[in-house]
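re: ur question from yesterday

yeah so i grabbed the chain u mentioned. its 524 aa long if i counted rite. heres the sequnce exactly as i have it in my notes:
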Amino acid sequence: MHHAPVLIECTFTCSKPITVSVQPVQDATLQLLVVCTVPAMAEQLATGWHSENSRPAFQIVPGVAQLRAQLREKRWDAVLHWLNHAGSTPASSLKTLRDRNLDTPLILIADPVDQRTAIKALSAGAHDVVFIDRLARLAPAVEREVREASHRADHRAALEMLHDSEARLRALTSNLPGLVFNLQRDVGGGYRFLYAGEGSLRLLGLKQHELRGTTRRFFDAIHTDDRARLVEALESSAHTGNALIWEGRLKNGINWIDMRSMPHRNDEGTVQWTGIATDISQSKQTEAELRESRAQLAALSSHLEAAKEEERERIARDIHDELGSILVRLKIEATLLASKLSPDISPKARSIENLLDQAMGTASRVARQLRPGILKEFGLPAAIECQADDFAHSTGIPCKAQCDDGIELDSDTSLALFRIVQEALTNVAKHAHASLVVVRLRREHGNIALEIRDNGRGIAEHDMDKPRSFGLRGIRERVQSLNGGFHIATAEQGGALLILKVPARRGDDLTLTEPEEVFQQDLF
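ran it thru and got these structure tokens back, copy pasting raw so excuse formatting
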């Protein structure tokens, strides 16, 4: 058996440290306090120390006062209390350690005759007892208790870290504007909350313990009309692995909540969601107010458009009936007058006749633009073809109109689409620098598709977002009033491309067809 050098220090008034050396094996030195009044007995402990794993450094203290002083100075691995040979009782030594919140092992050294006293000390909290006739047990007993004390210290540190983490989690979840939850779906399809944060009371009016372990109270708090959608969202998330994103009303029908979480499937087949449920009542109320405001603006816009169309119709009727009849009478009078004038004055009369012809043509064109009678008499395709001819005549830009046969729409839809064509052609004349414009009207899968394309300089996104782009905004408003869809972009080979679709019957929803990209590629 190998022995390690042993340092024995005696803390007495007149004594000096006593050192007893044995052969060293390793440098693992255990700092041991020995509560004993007889230094020679400490030498006996050193002699009885048998270990290849550690070497002791003993320091002798006679009583509690010296013990307390040494504990203040540094950390000790263990305290050895020699029963009946110390200036204090084991209970005093234990109290000293506990008063300083130390988990330092206290091991008794006792004579066999003091077995009853030793057992009583063990019951009071001493960690072990080594009898003097079995000192070979001293080193293993001390090493074991030091290891266990180290394990207890690690365990306490882990618990403190856990408590700190839990405290931070509680602080975080209590300050979040919602309910932090951990929801589990078992293999049989049942649900239960493994964790519910303090936000449950604010969000659902339920305390944390009312949610944990069950979901009955939670589902009861959801509005009956939205409960099935929540179950469907959970089942879909569990089977597909996609994120849980659900929003719905609470039982009162006023408050809304939003639930978001990513699922995690465990090895045993259960699925867990750890996420947050937030109160979105305010945003839903804001959305409702915004929708109402937009509806009111749309109604006002429709009313203004209707009033404007009535005014246009009245002005067009006055131009056609009053101004047109006057111009016709002037034309007749000018013709009669020219027939009676001398040949040298006749050219002036014919010039007046030409001016009257131009005035009559202008009046007719203005009347058609204000309220084309052809739209009411012959329908939208004929009105678009007439408008294309007028555009080509007035601007010098060729304009081709291609319209399917048999397209019959109600008056409001026809008028709105005609105004869109007018506005689009006006924009082409002002901004496009185009040399060709094509307008196409066709029936497609229960919808009416209108396409306007030019070969000009195109249109950029920032042009569509200009604050004063009232023409495009007017087109968008008209399309939305018809429950239609609207898209404008730069065409593949240059120029601008405007595409819109509206239901063939007013009041119907737009029929969804092929993707927009495919639709654009098939144009013309």
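noticed a couple things. The domain at 379-524 is CATH 3.30.565.10 (Heat Shock Protein 90). also The chain has four domains: 6-155, 177-279, 292-371, 379-524.
anyway ttyl
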